[in-house]
């Protein structure tokens, strides 16, 4: 089984390899549970356990050649994953399209000396995106995160109320919120 309890050091290691694979990359958003694990070492291990860090490039489009290099050297089937028990997922900008407004200002900024700036999503924004994804593992993760007190229902409801989603996306998040509450 792959994966481990992720840390900030793991994020920085994977990000450095990402910069090596895509030298032109200077800005990336880090999303997903890995983002929360890296920034919150106080979380219980089961909430920090993951197999990957999700990176969304900001300063350049995802090119086929770049994504192939990422997959080959630090992706899900790479030797890096076999050795480190984690990998990088080079995600499309569409991945953050339903993130509530203001997420860029709430993100934590990490400047790596290699010339890569990481914008790590705030825990509430990650939880909201998990509600949008709505997979069983996401519902379980948000439920567990709420139990830690790191996020609150009030904050999730506030983010939802301020998010200009279309009706179908809004209903999708609301279905996930109902599942988390049960």
Describe the structure.
It is a single chain. Helices cover 52% and strands 16% of the residues. It is an alpha/beta fold. A hairpin with a 3-residue loop joins β6 and β7.
Structural category is alpha/beta
Largest sheet: 5 strands, mixed
Which value, in Å, is the CA radius of gyration? 16 Å
Quaternary state, please? single chain
Weakly predicted, low-confidence segments: none
Q: For the largest beta sheet, what order do the strands appear in spatially?
A: 5-4-2-7-6
What form results from the Cα inertia axes?
globular
Strand content: 15-25%
The percent range for helix content is 40-55%
First and last CA, distance: 30 Å
Q: What is the residue-mean pLDDT, rounded to a whole number?
A: 94
Annotation field: number of helices: 10
Order of helices and strands: EHEHHEEHHEHEEHHHH
Beta-strand segment tally: 7
List the keywords.
alpha/beta; 182 residues; five-stranded mixed β-sheet; single chain; globular
List the helices and strands and how they pair.
Layout: E1 4-5, H1 8-21, E2 27-31, H2 33-39, H3 45-48, E3 49-50, E4 52-57, H4 64-74, H5 79-84, E5 87-90, H6 103-106, E6 108-112, E7 116-120, H7 123-133, H8 136-148, H9 153-162, H10 167-181
Parallel strand pairs: 2-7, 4-5
Antiparallel strand pairs: 1-3, 2-4, 6-7
Helix pairs in contact: 1-2, 1-4, 7-8, 7-9, 7-10, 8-10
Provide a compact summary of the structure.
Helices cover 52% and strands 16% of the residues.
């Amino acid at each position: 089984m792959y994966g481990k309890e992720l840390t900030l050091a793991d994020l920085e290691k994977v990000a450095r390899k990402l910069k090596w694979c895509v030298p032109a990359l200077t800005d990336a958003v880090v999303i997903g549970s890995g983002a929360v694990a890296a920034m919150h070492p106080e979380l219980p291990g089961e909430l920090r356990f993951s197999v990957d860090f999700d990176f969304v490039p900001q300063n350049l489009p995802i090119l086929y050649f770049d994504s192939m290099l990422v997959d080959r050297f630090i992706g899900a089937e790479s030797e890096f994953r076999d050795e480190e028990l984690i990998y990088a997922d080079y995600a499309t900008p569409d991945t953050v399209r339903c993130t509530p407004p203001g997420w860029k200002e709430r993100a934590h900024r990490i400047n790596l000396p290699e010339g890569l700036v990481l914008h790590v999503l705030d825990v509430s924004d990650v939880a909201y995106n998990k509600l949008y994804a709505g997979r069983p593992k996401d519902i379980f993760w948000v439920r567990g995160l709420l139990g830690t007190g790191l996020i609150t229902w009030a904050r999730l409801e506030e983010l939802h109320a301020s998010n200009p989603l279309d009706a179908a996306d809004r209903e999708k998040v609301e279905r996930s919120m109902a599942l988390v509450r049960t």
